[in-house]
Design a protein that fits this description.
Oligomer: single chain
Number of domains: 1
CATH superfamily: NAD(P)-binding Rossmann-like Domain
Helix content: 40-55%
CATH class: Alpha Beta
Order of helices and strands: EHEHEHEHEHEHHE
Bound molecules: NADPH dihydro-nicotinamide-adenine-dinucleotide phosphate
Number of helices: 7
Largest sheet: 7 strands, parallel
């Protein structure tokens, strides 16, 4: 297990689900972890008490709040941009404001947060964005807007890797497949359909995604950049 003692780490969207598993993983190995949340104050406070991490209320959809939150963390070693939402449904009837809000959180926020983090980031730092296998494959109707938001992350990661590579900073996306969380419960109504697309027919656990984030953030990840690290049980195969 890689030791993160003394590392300055920020997780955007850390109060629940995959983000909370990532907070636990880094805090459990000695990092100084702060995480943001939007609405889940009770969950955020409970996680902070459990892990010794610092909760910060900041809505990723609010660009000013997001940028000042990232900037306030100073010279980061690692930023994990996990906050995301899912809006699915018939594109002919989906609320366009809900789609735009999702694009703000899933696309605009990762870009602005990554750029702001890079300003003060230490050499050899790590920028990790949680994308989705739906950036590669969307086998259902109703997922176009979500898929476009996760495909956008791919272009961003490739470009920013080249912008910051001369400082040893790596920029990568983790692309989970179905992963047990409130967004996508393993016993939800779509679970069996999702599993039918997979080689390993189960939801991942948040801890499995967090372990990949820890690998990318650790010393063995130094030459991995501009890449999509898919962890999906074969959903996209
Ligand atoms: P959850 O809905 O379980 O948790 C989402 C987390 O993001 C919460 O901590 C939430 O905080 C935070 N968040 C959401 N909106 C905002 C916002 N506007 N500002 C700040 N924080 C916010 O989702 P998951 O854990 O399942 O998903 C995490 C990421 O993984 C997302 O980017 C998602 O797209 C991606 N993903 C998930 C998959 C899955 O199957 N679960 C598969 C592939 C990708 P709060 O509650 O306080 O608002």
């Amino acid at each position: 297990m890689t030791d993160f003692a003394g590392k300055n780490i920020l997780v955007l969207g850390g109060s629940r689900g995959i983000g909370a598993a990532i907070v636990r993983r880094f805090a459990g190995r000695g990092a100084k972890v702060a995480f943001t949340y939007a609405g889940s104050q009770d969950a955020a406070e409970a996680l902070a008490a459990e892990t010794g991490s610092e909760p910060v209320q900041a809505d990723s959809a609010d660009r000013g709040q997001l940028i000042s939150t990232v900037s306030a963390r100073g010279a980061l070693d690692v930023i994990v941009i996990n906050a995301g939402t899912l809006v699915m449904g018939d594109p002919l009837t989906l609320d366009p404001d809900a789609v735009d809000r999702m694009i703000n959180i899933n696309v605009r926020a990762p870009y602005h947060a990554a750029v702001e983090a890079a300003r003060a980031m230490k050499d050899n730092g790590r920028i990790i964005v949680i994308g989705s296998v739906n950036g590669d494959r969307m086998p259902f109707a109703g997922g176009a807007a979500y898929a476009l938001s996760k495909s956008a992350i791919q272009g961003m990661v490739r470009g920013l890797a080249r912008d910051f590579g001369d400082r040893g900073i790596t920029v990568n996306a983790i692309q989970p497949g179905p992963t047990d969380s409130e967004m996508n419960p393993s016993d939800g109504p779509m679970a069996a359909t999702m599993h039918s697309f997979m080689a390993i027919k189960r939801h991942a656990r948040g801890e499995e995604i967090a372990e990949l984030a820890a690998f990318l953030a650790g010393p063995h990840g130094a030459m991995i950049t501009g890449s999509m690290q898919t962890i999906d049980g074969g959903f996209g195969a």
